[in-house]
Amino acid sequence: MTKLDIQNTIKLLNQYKLSGVDENIGNMAKNRYGKGTIKSPDKLQSKKETDFPQHEIEKDILDIDSLESLKEYMSNFKGCELHKSATNMVFSDGNPSAKIMLIGEAPGHDEDIQGKPFVGRSGKLLDKMLEAIDLNREKVYIANIVPWRPPNNRRPTDEEIEICLPMIKKHIEIVNPKAILLLGSTATYALIKNNEGITKIRGKWLDIEINKKKYPILPTFHPAFLLRQPAQKKFSWEDLKSLKKKVKI
Ligand code: URA
Predict the structure, then answer these.
(1) What is the pLDDT of residue 37?
(2) Is the N or C terminus of the chain more exposed, i.e. has fewer CB atoms within 10 Å?
(3) 122 C-beta closer than 6 A to ligand 1
(4) Cβ 141 under 6 angstroms from ligand 1
(5) C-alpha angle with apex 104: 76 to 112, nearest 5 degrees?
């Protein structure tokens, strides 16, 4: 690269930055002018987009049957670009023998720093919500769909979610909860691919099947949403009561 090339590159990057493009991570380039995703050339030649990398991950983790092994696998996992900008892989918190599993979207700033899910503002609200039905972190188990913080707390992309899906499904299988509370629209859509929005689907008990076993799941609002829309807390209260009744604890 000549000096002129370098200067031009710096100028171009500065222009990107000024226009708001301040991150360059992602598993595939996005075509922001047209529909869909541009496949990177190496993937085009070797694999169909649908083959990569979910099936490989599923194969890799097929024999994993303990949380320790899953955590180790995920800590060394390089298939999701988010790990590059994250401080920690946020695996879980709470009691692995609990009957109730809570699943959120992805770590935020505080979770990324502390390596634990729901320790920031929404986590504080979540603790209060649990307290309201006589629960706490010793009585539930908490994980996220995506275990790495997306930059600037953006929503994880569909691709990031799909990459992480086999890992959260394995996580559910190992914990084997009696009921799962899905916190927010991202966690809900990731696991059940619902067509209706969270406002419609929340409060309805559904099943997800993982490896021939059915798990009852209850979608509800995300605590971050409740912080913005406190009037919706009354619906979350209904969902919490329903959860408590289902699990009878
Ligand atoms: N929001 C989430 O969905 N998960 C966390 O761990 C923190 C905030």
Answers:
(1) 44
(2) N
(3) yes
(4) no
(5) 50
Instruction: Say how many Å lie between the CA of residue 194 and the centre of ligand 1.
Output: 20
Q: Give yes or no for a contact between 102 and 168, defined as CB atoms under 8 angstroms apart.
A: no
Tens-digit pLDDT profile for residues 32-85:
554 444 444 344 334 444 444 788 999 999 999 999 999 999 999 999 999 999
Domains and CATH numbers, the chain: 48-247 (3.40.470.10)
pTM of the predicted model as reported, rounded to 2 decimal places: 0.83
Q: What angle do CA 182, 100, 172 make, to 5 degrees?
A: 70
State the average pLDDT over residues 15-25.
64
Pairing of strands 213-220, 140-144: unpaired
Q: Are 85 and 164 in contact (CB under 8 A)?
A: no
List for the chain the helix, strand, coil content (%; round to 5).
Answer: 50, 15, 40
- State the Cα–Cα distance between residues 67 and 146, nearest whole angstrom: 16
Reading the block at residue 137, the tokens are: 């972190």
Residue 122 Cα: closest atom of ligand 1: 8
Q: What is the pLDDT of residues 4-18, one digit of tens each?
A: 778 888 887 777 766
Asked whether 92 lines ligand 1 (CB < 6 A), one says no
Nearest ligand 1 atom to the CA of 144 is 4
